[in-house]
Specification:
mainly alpha; two-stranded antiparallel ribbon; 16 helices; homodimer; about 325 residues; Farnesyl Diphosphate Synthase
Chain lengths: ~325, ~325
Amino acid sequence: MYVNRIFAEKIGEELESRILPHHPENLYAPIDYMLNLSGKRIRPLLVLLGADLFGIKNIDDALPASVAIEYFHNFSLIHDDIMDKAPLRRGKQTIHQKWNDNVAILSGDALLIKAYEQLSRCPARFVPDLLRIFNRVALEVCEGQQLDMDFETSDTIGQEEYINMIRLKTSVLLGGALEMGAVLAGASAENRLQLYDFGVNLGIAFQLQDDILDAFGDPVTFGKQVGGDIIANKKTILYILLGEAIRREDEAYFAELLSLGEVDARQKIAGIITLYEKYAIQQKADTLKQHYTALAYKSLEAINIDHQRKTELYELANQLMKRVR
Amino acid sequence: MYVNRIFAEKIGEELESRILPHHPENLYAPIDYMLNLSGKRIRPLLVLLGADLFGIKNIDDALPASVAIEYFHNFSLIHDDIMDKAPLRRGKQTIHQKWNDNVAILSGDALLIKAYEQLSRCPARFVPDLLRIFNRVALEVCEGQQLDMDFETSDTIGQEEYINMIRLKTSVLLGGALEMGAVLAGASAENRLQLYDFGVNLGIAFQLQDDILDAFGDPVTFGKQVGGDIIANKKTILYILLGEAIRREDEAYFAELLSLGEVDARQKIAGIITLYEKYAIQQKADTLKQHYTALAYKSLEAINIDHQRKTELYELANQLMKRVR
């Protein structure tokens, strides 16, 4: 994973310097636990990269906004994990599992509020703009999560609906993080929008790639169990494209495979992959992924600033999109 | 209930003019449902009264902040109802009951974000200050809710801890609503603080009165079932004062009464009230209530502004504190 070392260190220090109250323990200990599970912290990095792109004078001015984005991301994970009944997060027990649902609801709420507390620490003249962007993105993330849950019980999701869902659930936050950085550096409205689009489209491409790798990735380099989505009947882009392409003759077989459980995991994965191959689903998904990757690069190119300054974002995009099969 | 008609109408119109998106339905329909259960809307009124006290030029400038406060209040009710497993709210099914827990978690989150969206509509020069106040109060409300849940499983709560809990859970929001109004009218820091203290202390007094009325109110005028708290073993100020005052000879009897359920409701209420009378608990609680009422009036008096302007807040306080027994 690409990392700007100096920025990553600044973010780490900033996150660690934010000391939480100790009381009430059941409110703050779970937040502390979650923040210490320490993910890749790519979202707060995007805030700094967005600010740096437009030559912010003092990069430290962008730290509160970057922490706000990281807090928001963790809040959304805490609540999503309750809703998805997920037992693990980053290999550790989720909060609702380690404590209980009530603790996870309330400490999630408090973390969302703490995200806004960070926004209020930003340079005052930018606060109204930052608040508007943050609110818009935060609400869209909620909409995406709701659509994702709605999709679980629906059999008629098309690729457009699916891409709209991942755009809302995961990609607008990447775009919003970059946009907030741009605001803090005083970028023009036009440039802000291009940078936002870059983040959103890159996010969509990345999520599509993640779906593809689940079925077609190399188990050694992918880092997750290959076929995990297949076993769980997860509605990935592959699943949806197959549902759209499948001919009547294969429908019963597809349904039969979907009804298989953990016990028949190998058979299930092999069967579904055969269908994916028969209908050239990987190629179709790759075409989509390339479409959104191209859109992302196009937006990055369109930003009206010295090409040299864009090097880091190009590198980041390249590294994200060439994850080893 | 005291109401400034013009302000109440403005708030009603403002709330109704905020049209929610229709999609995703499971995200927005519950919010719409909750906002239409329409409580007393005293919190948004406090924002306008706070702004009016200090002579805000255009009262409409305070409407977004008042809606923000009402949204926040409803968000906290939605999540509290999940945590308390409450089936009813204002006589209607709660959201987690009518839909499910996931819908209630996520629509609550969205409503909290929509509260911040309203803050971002406030006059830009006040946004940073309003955001700080709102965040501080919102976080305290979460702390209060956590303490309330912690208290359920603790037998060693003293009156100070209890009052601190109700201060956080319910009173700081009243103070914060008034304070935000004052900020919007450009009041001095000193005056803002006095007005905030007025709201907080009035809120504490009101909550203590509510506890007292549950046991000693007139069933005809109280509007709720008298003794409801007693049946539920709710840790009210009466319960806590009795726990502090009770002598060893009555402890077993108290414990026995606490173990009685719905079936023996009349016996339970009568028994507990006998103990309250034996230990003069009502008087002790009244003394506390009067202490906080006096603090509230003292803060209102201390506000450095023409006495005439305070008439509405005095009236509001009088009406809140002389609810019929």
